[in-house]
Design brief:
The chain is α/β, with parallel strands linked by helices. It contains ten helices and 16 strands.
Length: 348
Amino acid sequence: MIELDKKYMRRCFELASHGLGLTRTNPLVGSVIVHNDRIIGEGYHHEYGGPHAEVNAIRNVKDKSLLSESTIYINMEPCSHFGKTPPCSTLISNHKIPRVVISNADPFPSVSGRGIEALQKTGADVEVGLLEGEGTFVNRRFLRFHTKKRPYVILKWAETADGFIDLNRQPGDPVGTNWITNEVARTLVHKWRSEEAGLMVGTDTILADNPKLNVRRWKGNSPLRIAMDRNGRIPETANILDGSLDTLIFTSDQEKYSGKTNSIIIDHDASIEDLLDELYGLKIISLFVEGGQKLHNSFINSGIWDEARVFHGNNTFSAGVKAPQMYTSPDEEFPFENSSLKIFYNHL
C-alpha cells in the first residue's frame, strides 16, 4: 500500500507545480482521488483566490457516489477556515471521503493542524507526513515565507570560464548586456522570472545593462520589479521606470520616480534583513536576484539566501567584474550547449 500511496502523492506534487508563480502567498497544492487503485478525480490550485486543489479534484469526479469509498491525496493540509474560499476540510467531510493522505502540515496560523483535527473529528482516517521531504521542496517558498518571515531568496548569475560576470565598464561605453549564456539559457531565465513574486537588481546593473526585468520569452506573469538605488542614481530613461509594470525602489534619496513606481526610504546602512523585512510586509513570497556583483555578495555574505543558480559559459573575458564566490559544491549540475548550470542550496 505504501508504494501506491507514494505514487499518488508524487502525482499531487506534479499537479501542484502547475500553479508555480500563480498562487501568490498560497501554497502549491495538488490533489488526487483514488478508488480501487484508479484515479477518479484530480486537480490543483490554479491561482490565488480561485478554488483549491481539493475542490477541483472533487468536481472532476463524475460518479460522486464513489467518494465514500475512496482515498484523497493532498500534498498540503486542507484548510479549515473561511478565507477566499470555503474550508476544504468541510468539503471532504461532507462527501464522506474515509481516508485522507497528506504530505505536509500547513504552518499558516489559520490552518496549522486545524484541518487535520477537523477531519479526524468526523471519523476520517488521516495520515500525515508521506514523502514530507519532497513535499517541503515543492512548497519551499511558502514554507520559508511562513516559518522564517521572509521571502525565499534565489540568486542567479552567469559567469565566464575564467570567472567574470561582466567586462569592466568605462564612462561612455555602450549600455547593454555582454552575453555569456546562449538562447536556451536566456529563455529558461524568463521562465524562472515568471515563477517568482519579485525580481531584484542593483543600481550598477541598471546603469550598465538597462534591463526591462519582465517576462518576454515565456508565457506567464512578470514579477514585481525591485531595484536597489541608495543614492538615487537611476535615470528617468531607465527601462524599469517605463510605467509598464509595478516597480519598487529601495533608496535613501527622497527623489520621486516616474511610472508605476513606489519607493521605500532606507538608511545607507540598511541590511539585507531590513530589505527582506520590507518585502515580507508586502507579501512578496519569493525573490529572484539577478545582479549585480555587490548585491549578490551582500546576500551571500549575510548567509540569507536559499538557492543559487549559476550558469558557467565557455567564453572568457580575461578581465572584468569578478563573479561571486560559492564556497561549497553544487547540489545539482546540468549541461547546456557549450555551458553548464550549477544549482546550490543553502543547507545552513
